[in-house]
Amino acid sequence: MEPKPYDAVLLASFGGPEGQDDVIPFLRNVTRGRGIPDERLEEVSHHYRAFGGISPINAQNRALKAALEAELERRGIDLPVLWGNRNWDPYIPQVLQDAYDAGHRRLLTITTSAYSCYSSCRQYREDLGMALTETGLDGKLEVDKVRQYFDHPGFVEPFVEGTAKGLADVRAQLAAAGTPDAPLHILFSTHSIPMKDAHASGNSPEEPREFEEHSAYVAQHLAGARAIIERVAPGTEWSLVYQSRSGAPHVPWLEPDINDALEELAGKGVKGAVIVPLGFVSDHMEVAWDLDTEALETCRELGIAATRVPTPGVHEKFVAGMVDLILERTVVPGRPELTVADRPAMTRLGPWYDVCRPGCCANQRGEKPTIAGADTRIGTGFEPAGTAS
Known about the structure:
The chain is α/β, with parallel strands linked by helices. Helix content is 39%, strand content 12%. The strands form 3 sheets. Strands 2-1-3-4 form a 4-stranded parallel sheet, with helices on both faces. A 4-stranded parallel sheet has the order 6-5-7-8, with helices on both faces.
């Protein structure tokens, strides 16, 4: 997409409960349309309950919003940063309405999901598209979205730094245990998704593309992991593992689960593990519970020395990188416009697209209004990306 004179940035995220009374209403929002009773939701609420009903994600997004504002101000760029969630207050539809009422007419969205798949990209595009339709702002408020940034240096470099420190920490633990030369393993962990969604990720029925393991989602993670390994520890054993699986047990999801992988590694004599939460932007509940609680407990039970690498969070390189992504798309008076050749990418898969191709990361439950896609349309006529279909 050609750069445009956006008048605000929208930070879009998942959202999370902020107290015990919020947990079930939040889970109802997340599972809306699936017919899951509250009794079942209460059964799966334990990780939120264990943290007082408070998900870390909202506080983390407030911190990221403030950091983005500070970085934009430092660079002399007058762009306010708005924040909206898919599943909890502040909800995206209200944020769009408030933005319009405040006089904004052109928003550029950056999400807290770096990869290509339905839940990481298209679902955000749908939520924004449906919000424009529901509020009556379609055709009045333009909303675009930056590219997926799985291999942008701003996202990858904090993991490079963290992985190097994690390796040093685990080696120190092994040395303290009298086994400095014991084998160790790096596990790059991300959210598991259904196999159907994995195979649809990054792929368009009209413009098919081949990816490693038939999935852009998997290929992007593998490419990022290799970029980190090449920088930090060439030759070190590593693997891509998955976590946070949900849904019916008969539906195939990406595997192996990190805990199963750890048990297999222990059986092969591995004594050290560096867990890299490569699929995540911040230390939210999937990191705090599934890795810091469950996976590290598995390591203790198996006698594996382990550490968990930090997510990018508000690391200065991540914040600067997110502002760089914004500026790729934004006309700034007095500054030369950037070209595609100016866009950094640390793998051969990138830089990723600004506009998703027709049917990319298809919704298995049926089409919904979307933004930022080549299949974006209203009625029977195609409209520019940035409006709802």
